[in-house]
Hints:
Elements: E1 2-4, E2 18-22, H1 27-38, E3 42-47, H2 50-62, E4 69-72, H3 80-94, E5 99-102, H4 118-144, E6 149-154, H5 167-186, E7 192-198, H6 205-210, H7 222-225, H8 227-233, E8 244-248
Bound molecules: NADP nicotinamide-adenine-dinucleotide phosphate.
Amino acid sequence: MQISTNYSFSQDELTGKVILVTGANRGFGKAMTLDLAKAGATVIMLGRDLGSLETAYDEVVDAGFVEPILYPLDLEGATPEHYDQLQKDVLDNFGKLDGLIHNAGIIGAMMPIEQYDLKLWYSTMQINVNAPFMLTQCLIPALNKSPDARILFLSSSVGRNARAYWGAYGVSKFAIEGLSKTLSEELEKTNIKTNSLDPKRMRTKMRQTAYPAENADNIPTPESMSPAIVYLMSEGAKALNGEQLTLELN
Length: 250
Ligand SMILES: NC(=O)c1ccc[n+]([C@@H]2O[C@H](COP(=O)([O-])OP(=O)(O)OC[C@H]3O[C@@H](n4cnc5c(N)ncnc54)[C@H](OP(=O)(O)O)[C@@H]3O)[C@@H](O)[C@H]2O)c1
């Protein structure tokens, strides 16, 4: 299903909502954080680099949007204890969570499976699949406290149609699609709606790594795509569950 990026929203569209975004310090995560805060949500900005998290935080505050919360955590090294603490922090401070956006990820390396570096394979799976699994598991109790909660998994076209040499990244996105679909079935009768989203192409560091020779001027900015994320967290998208969504730039 295609989701339009041309969504205009009011400044109170998401007022009162608490939404956790992973990889909120830059790229698409930062762009969506700005729009979610602009729409009135309190964003829990999770990222591993405190310096760039603080810079992104300043941008949100300087723009006059709702003040976010910084949550420094490295998803590669995070242990069950870190996730227990996160659950406690969310419940103690907010008593609920309305949105969980699994945006953080790494591209790994473009190479044949036959030669794929074992350590990089493990890292990619840890950040792109195992962390979203553990994060989701620890935050379901908080999502259950919301009357209308959303889980969104950032996916990719190579997680829906296999492409040679995309290695651990492509495999991790197939796994994310499986996790999203399985959860959507398990939580079908609850207040939690679960979907995956392929944003197609955006002018970020990840895209530049995958296509170093490309003219980035022809690639849409993450800021042009992020209004769609506000829509996906809003009342209007309440009926979506178990969908493989794709962003439609228009
Ligand atoms: N850009 C595209 O064209 C495109 C296309 C299809 C799908 N996607 C998907 O969209 C999502 C966002 O992509 P993007 O283009 O914005 O990527 P990006 O510019 O490379 O940003 C990735 C984000 O993930 C964070 N991250 C990586 N490893 C982490 C870790 N161990 N712990 C915590 N955070 C970590 C990064 O933080 P650091 O700054 O600390 O590295 C950064 O904030 C990804 O899931 C990607 O697969 C992107």
